[in-house]
Amino acid sequence: MQAITKTNFNFPKQKSLYVGKVRDVYNIDDKYLAMVVTDRISAFDVVLPKGIPFKGQILNQIAAEFLDLTADIVPNWKIATPDPMVTIGRKCEGFRIEMIVRGYLAGSAYRAYKDGATTLCGVELPKGMKENDKFPTPIITPTTKADEGHDENISKEEIIAQGIVSKEDYEQLEKYALALFERGSEIANKHGLILVDTKYEFGKADGKIYLIDEIHTPDSSRYFYLEGYEERQHNGEKQRQLSKEFVREWLMDNGFQGKSGQKVPEMTDEIIEGISNRYIELYENITGKKFVKADENSDIAKRIEDNVTSCINNL
C-alpha cells in the first residue's frame, strides 16, 4: 500500500506552495487553491514519520461531501474534486480564528471544567455537568489560528476588541457555525452517530464570506456512537468515540505526547495497516457509504498531477 507523504508538483499558473501538517496547498494564479490532502498524520502538533494509506482520500472525500451537503447554508470555497485526494477551490483571505462548536462537555473543555473553570472563551458553563454530558444548547469556543505551535482560546469580546474580526462579520460567523453544526448533527444521527464537537474555518473573497478548508472529518470533529450513549452516561462509562483519538491513545500508551525528548514509537506495517483500517471505518460510519479505494496500484503522484492539471486548464 502506497502512502503519499510529500508532494512537489508544478501545476499550470502555480504561484506558490504552502505545506501544512497534512495538506499541501498550491496557489494557482492567486485565484484558486489546489489542496492536496496527503497521507501524513499528525498528533500532539507533531507530524508522525510514516503516512497512512488512503487517509488523504478519506479526509478529502468526507470534506467534499459535507461541503456539498451544507452549500445551502453558507457558500463554500470548493469548485471541484478532480482527484480522490484533491479539492480545487476559490482562494479566500482566511479569518485568523477557528470557530469551535461544542454540543457536549468533552475533550479540552471537560479538562478545563474538571480543573475548576466556570467559563470557556467567555461562555458561562452550566454547573454540575459530567464528562460527555450534552450542553443545553451548543456553545462556540473560538481559538486564534496560529501559524506555528498551539492555537489559543479567545472570547468573542476579545476577538472584536482586538479587531481580529469585525463585530458584523463575527456575528455572521456565529450564525453560520451553529447552522452547520445543526446540519452536521442531523446527518450524524441518521448514521447512528452524535456530532460532539467540531471546528469550522471561514474566509472572505470579494467581500463575501465562504466556508473554507475541511468540514466534519474525523480529524476536525469528534463523534460518539448514538446507540448506548444514554446508558453509558447514566453508568458513568466512557463513550465510544469515532475520531482520531485512538491514534493519540496509542501514542500515549507508548510514552509519547509530543513533549521535548520523547520519541515517536515505531510505526510497524501492522500498526499502519490498523490505523488505515480504522480511518476506513470512520469514513463508512460518517458518510453511511462503502469506501472505495482509489486505484492503489497506479502511480498516485502522476494520477494527481494529471487530474489537477486537466482541471486547472478548464477553469
Ends: how far apart? 33 Å
Number of separate helices: 8
Instruction: Estimate the global geometry from the Cα principal axes.
Output: globular
In total, how many beta strands? 17
User: What's the rounded overall pLDDT mean?
Assistant: 95
Approximate helicity band? 25-40%
The largest β sheet comes out as: 8 strands, antiparallel
Q: Radius of gyration from the CA trace?
A: 20 Å
Q: Would you kindly provide a written description of the structure presented here, covering whatever features stand out?
A:
With 315 residues, the protein is of the alpha+beta class. It contains 8 helices and 17 strands. It has helices at 55-69, 107-114, 156-161, 167-190, 229-234, 245-253, 269-287, 300-313; strands at residues 14-19, 23-28, 32-37, 42-43, 46-47, 78-83, 86-90, 93-94, 97-104, 119-120, 123-124, 134-140, 143-144, 193-205, 208-212, 221-225, 241-242. Strands 8, 9, 12, 13, 14, 15, 16 and 17 form an 8-stranded antiparallel sheet that branches. Strands 1-2-3-7-6 form a 5-stranded antiparallel sheet. A two-stranded antiparallel ribbon has the order 4-5.
Features:
5-stranded antiparallel beta sheet, alpha+beta, 315 residues, 32% helix, globular
Summed up, what is this model?
The chain is of the alpha+beta class and 315 residues long. Helices cover 32% and strands 26% of the residues.
How are the elements arranged and paired?
Blueprint: E1 14-19, E2 23-28, E3 32-37, E4 42-43, E5 46-47, H1 55-69, E6 78-83, E7 86-90, E8 93-94, E9 97-104, H2 107-114, E10 119-120, E11 123-124, E12 134-140, E13 143-144, H3 156-161, H4 167-190, E14 193-205, E15 208-212, E16 221-225, H5 229-234, E17 241-242, H6 245-253, H7 269-287, H8 300-313
Antiparallel strand pairs: 1-2, 2-3, 3-7, 4-5, 6-7, 8-14, 9-12, 9-13, 9-14, 10-11, 14-15, 14-16, 16-17
